[in-house]
């Protein structure tokens, strides 16, 4: 059981309101989503106020008890040793042999000479009785245990007394105590945090850091609800896993959650957030998004769409040359997608340097997924930095050399950014040329723009396309090979609409509804970005729960797209659910207004390239499904195909898809 946004207890999958909305097909209607109950929110705030007040009040007796303990330990002296030893004399009857005077004199424990003298005296007193108590057996741990107990008490008392006599340490102790009390008082008027695993002192939920994946967060959501709270050191993390909470974050409070979080590695690799993907919401981000849309993703830029047509036409020809043998389809799709992105973004028509770029891309993908202890404990950011920084510098240095070649070539060409065939780099260089060297601002004084910004934006284009478009295309083909009936239905539609005497053209895509359903279903089950990263720009309240400023908000698109409340057979690949007049989700689109289906995100931080990305995947899948019949290698059955994924900024297949193509068309590819 978990709680819905209104605070009522509901079943594991969610609440009945979302379920009935899904059955009725009103996925895009805001009214179909559950609303939050303000009375429940007020109750939560009152409960949180009571708990915080209780914690603050309890601080005072705890501090007093701590002072009493220190005074008691400080009063412990060697004259009291025999009294403590007499209390422990019963250990002899169940312990080991008595220790000699030499053992006491060379003990590894840190105790005073007077304490050792008292123990020697006590040993002499009990030695005549030892054989009677122990039944004639030799003792092995008796005096060692006594020495250990007294040593730990004495050392602790010594340390505490030294701290209390050191004014600096005493001030630090007072500072942390007052900080804790003030923090609890500050939370008196705040809403409570959402439910979640109970954090440990200081480190919080660091033991669950490996659960910050789409599947790990989905499993935690089943236990704690659609909005859960985790704390890693001083960092608060909130995971959103249901459509109702996604709507609250991505729509109702879009402005408050439009910032992007970044780890230490991401901050360095993106030239200090100089790119678009990790830049905070502001004038710079808006200007760069506008530039990308007009110079890269717009339908009016013919070069981009020609690159898609020619690139995936080359994909079909490359597969055709290896018909009848096993083809590493995943690797082939990825490499040709890189080629498409190169031509679309940089007007590069040759494949020179692609192998070098793939190596850089793989290293960047690994580094961007790494956490450093400084991400959770800022004052420990210096720990283990030497090897970490060296690896970051090497990766960014390789990228600098690679991108500098592209930028220098465009600078020599000197194309006007207003030309219809000008690409993204030409537009970025126009911004750079307009910059004032003295102030670092352009003529309009809107944003600061340097060569680092140019390289960071190019990096976004290089890394965003191949990972997302290539991965989605591979998943779509893998799902159809895992469910051959869906592949046969798509091939029949292609044969009816296009025919077997020619290849697929871009103009055919609008007449292939089942193809669009296949791509939608692949995006639902395997969203390009499984966990959408957001950061709270201010203190917020979501569903009656507190989300402090600077917290990371992870919108689990993978879990939302598989919410059992919103989707029938949520874990089954069934494209017909999107077919008009046939499926229950026929009205859903990819524009981000349906919060049960957010493969590209929603709101102002939604993917600006979703139109181009969807078109590229549709064209690639159509070429592969229409041009060839597919079989799995080595007699593998469809049910035996590995469908596991690996987590990162994207979720590629754990193993590349390999299959055997057989030509279907009567015309050359």
UniProtKB/TrEMBL annotation:
Coiled coil: none
Extent of Low complexity compositional bias: 13-25
GO molecular function: heme binding; iron ion binding; monooxygenase activity; oxidoreductase activity, acting on paired donors, with incorporation or reduction of molecular oxygen
Transmembrane regions listed in the UniProt entry: 52-74
Superkingdom of origin organism: Eukaryota
Entry-linked Gene3D superfamilies: Cytochrome P450 (1.10.630.10)
Keywords assigned: Heme, Iron, Membrane, Metal-binding, Monooxygenase, Oxidoreductase, Transmembrane, Transmembrane helix
Disordered: region residues: 1-41
Residues that coordinate or bind heme: 607
Keyword flag Glycoprotein: no
Cofactor(s) named in the record: heme
Protein family: Belongs to the cytochrome P450 family.
The protein, known as: Cytochrome P450 84A1
Species whose genome carries this gene: Lolium multiflorum
């Amino acid at each position: 059981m978990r709680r819905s946004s209104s605070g009522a207890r509901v079943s594991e999958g969610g609440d009945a309101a979302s379920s009935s909305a899904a059955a009725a097909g009103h996925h895009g209607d805001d009214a179909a989503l559950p609303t939050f109950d303000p009375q429940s929110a007020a109750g939560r705030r009152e409960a949180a106020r009571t708990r915080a007040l209780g914690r603050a009040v309890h601080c005072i007796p705890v501090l007093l008890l701590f002072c009493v303990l220190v005074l008691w330990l400080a009063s412990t002296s060697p004259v009291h040793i025999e009294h403590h030893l007499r209390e422990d004399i019963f250990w002899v009857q169940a312990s080991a042999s008595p220790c000699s005077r030499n053992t006491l004199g060379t003990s590894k424990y840190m105790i005073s000479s007077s304490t050792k003298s008292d123990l020697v005296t006590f040993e002499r007193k009990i030695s005549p009785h030892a054989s009677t108590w122990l039944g004639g057996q030799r003792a092995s741990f008796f005096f060692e245990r006594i020495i250990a107990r007294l040593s730990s008490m004495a050392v602790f008392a010594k340390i505490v007394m030294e701290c209390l006599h050191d004014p600096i340490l005493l001030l630090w102790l007072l500072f942390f105590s007052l900080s804790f009390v003030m923090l609890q008082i500050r939370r008196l008027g705040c809403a409570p945090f959402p439910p979640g695993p109970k954090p440990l002192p200081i480190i919080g939920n660091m033991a669950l850091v490996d659960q910050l994946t789409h599947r790990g967060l989905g499993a935690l959501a089943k236990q704690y609800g659609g909005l859960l709270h985790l704390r890693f050191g001083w960092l608060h993390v909130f995971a959103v896993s249901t459509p109702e909470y996604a709507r609250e974050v991505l729509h109702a409070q879009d402005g408050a959650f439009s910032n992007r979080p970044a780890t230490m590695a991401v901050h360095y690799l993106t030239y200090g957030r100089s790119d678009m993907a990790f830049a905070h919401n502001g004038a710079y981000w808006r200007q760069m998004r506008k530039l990308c849309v007009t110079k890269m993703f717009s339908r009016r830029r013919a070069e981009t769409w020609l690159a898609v047509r020619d690139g995936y036409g080359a994909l079909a020809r490359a597969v055709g040359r290896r018909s009848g043998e096993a083809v590493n389809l995943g690797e082939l799709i990825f490499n040709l997608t890189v080629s498409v992105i190169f031509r679309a973004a940089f007007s590069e028509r040759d494949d020179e340097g692609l192998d070098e770029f793939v190596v850089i891309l793989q290293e960047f993908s690994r580094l961007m997924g790494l956490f450093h202890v400084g991400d959770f404990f800022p004052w420990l950011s210096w720990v283990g930095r030497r090897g970490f920084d060296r690896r970051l510098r090497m990766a960014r240095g390789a990228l600098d050399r690679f991108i500098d070649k592209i930028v220098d070539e465009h600078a020599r060409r000197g194309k006007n950014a207003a030309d219809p065939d000008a690409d993204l780099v030409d537009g970025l260089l126009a911004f750079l040329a307009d910059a004032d060297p003295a102030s670092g601002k352009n003529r309009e004084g809107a944003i600061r723009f340097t060569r680092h910004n140019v390289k960071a934006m190019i990096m976004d284009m290089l890394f965003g396309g191949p990972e997302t478009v290539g991965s989605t295309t591979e998943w779509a083909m893998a799902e159809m090979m895992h469910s051959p009936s869906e592949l046969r239905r798509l091939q029949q539609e292609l044969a009816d609409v296009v025919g077997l005497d020619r290849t697929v053209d871009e103009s055919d895509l609008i007449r292939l509804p089942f193809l669009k359903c296949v791509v939608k279903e692949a995006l639902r089950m395997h969203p390009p970005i499984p966990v959408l990263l957001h950061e709270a720009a201010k203190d917020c309240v979501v569903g009656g729960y507190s989300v402090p400023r600077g917290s990371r908000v992870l919108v689990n698109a993978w879990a939302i797209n598989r919410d059992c409340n919103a989707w029938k057979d949520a874990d089954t690949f069934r494209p017909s659910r999107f077919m008009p007049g046939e499926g229950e989700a026929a009205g859903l689109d990819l524009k981000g207004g349906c919060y049960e289906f957010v493969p590209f995100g929603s709101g102002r931080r939604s993917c600006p390239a979703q139109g181009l990305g969807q078109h590229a995947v549709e064209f690639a899948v159509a070429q592969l499904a229409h041009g060839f019949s597919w079989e799995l290698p080595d007699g593998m059955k469809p049910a035996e195909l590995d469908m596991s994924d690996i987590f990162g900024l994207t979720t590629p297949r754990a193993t590349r898809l390999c299959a055997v193509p057989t030509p279907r068309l009567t015309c050359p590819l």
